[in-house]
Amino acid sequence: MNEYIDKLNMYLPIDFADEENNAYRQYLIESFHENCEKGKHQFALMAFHMLFMSFLYKEFWELKQFSFSKVQGLCKSDAKFNGINNIFEASIIPEKTMIDQYLSIHSWHVNKKNAVKEFVDKRDNCAHASGFIQYDASESERIYLDVLDQAQKISQANKQNVVDIIQKKLIDFIKNEDEFNAKTSGEFISDLIREVKISPRDISYVLSADTPQIVTDDTSGIFVVAYFFAMLQLHSGYLQNSVENTLNIPDEYFADRLYLYLDTLDADRKLALQVQVEDEMEYLNACGTLISVGKLSDIW
């Protein structure tokens, strides 16, 4: 059963940037494991459901904070949604209402929304005293698989929004001369993961997205170096926090692309970028990256 909670955690923030929220997530994960080990599958299912709802809360919060136009209509029509300023403030909204309204943002058909809302009923079957045990291990397993399937579909519906949010943040950072000179792009990404509550699944979408035009049009090389090290930091974060690597991207893909780019430059341009590359490499290695970037030193 352990693999189901690990797969669901792929949709939750790597770091909630809140000690209490991180502890809460860990509490639910441990509760799931302990109840599964003892055969208390209905209690494990309740913990699983709470993590699934945490994922939905995170998806809504991300749009409200960083792409408000997508949820503006909902927030104008319902003050409770407008008042959500952190992920778990969404818990004051009835779960079925939250599911129905959030999925309406993505124009889901009522039948698809109802399929997700069924999980609330199954959780209620565990939470209310019925006088009998309703779900055994095999029945719980079928529910976990259904939940994971719906989580994947919900995440996919928000995929482009997530990519747009993260790419815009990165481009704004690179274009902001004061901020760009104050930290490496690797440091920026580390901060961004906490700020936007980025999940491993979110990262996979960004790593698979097209390179922004502002990077491909760059003639100085500064934007190119910053972008590829940002991708390296994200890729490293994905590898460090994923229980399964579903990316069709080799571990050294971005390092190879940057190496090939730098190798095309003339000696003066390479020299101008050397300090930037070395600073980025130093930060990436200090984070304990699983990706080898040593070949970049061979450019000089």
Structure description:
The chain has 300 residues and is an all-alpha fold. The chain has helices at 2-9, 19-37, 41-66, 72-77, 79-82, 95-105, 110-127, 137-157, 159-175, 177-182, 185-195, 200-207, 213-216, 222-241, 253-263, 267-286. The chain is elongated, with a radius of gyration of 22 Å.
Strand tally, please?
Answer: 0
What is the element string, with H for helices and E for strands? HHHHHHHHHHHHHHHH
Strand portion: under 5%
Global shape: elongated
In whole angstroms, the N-to-C terminal distance is: 50 Å
Radius of gyration: 22 Å
Biggest β-sheet: count, sense, barrel? none
Residue share in helices? over 70%
Could you tell me the mean pLDDT? 95
Low-confidence stretches: none
What structural class do the secondary elements suggest? mainly alpha
* Count of helical stretches: 16
Topology:
Layout: H1 2-9, H2 19-37, H3 41-66, H4 72-77, H5 79-82, H6 95-105, H7 110-127, H8 137-157, H9 159-175, H10 177-182, H11 185-195, H12 200-207, H13 213-216, H14 222-241, H15 253-263, H16 267-286
Keywords:
about 300 residues, mainly alpha, 16 helices, elongated
Describe the structure concisely for a colleague:
The protein is an all-alpha fold and 300 residues long. Helix content is 70%, strand content 0%. The N and C termini lie far apart (50 Å).
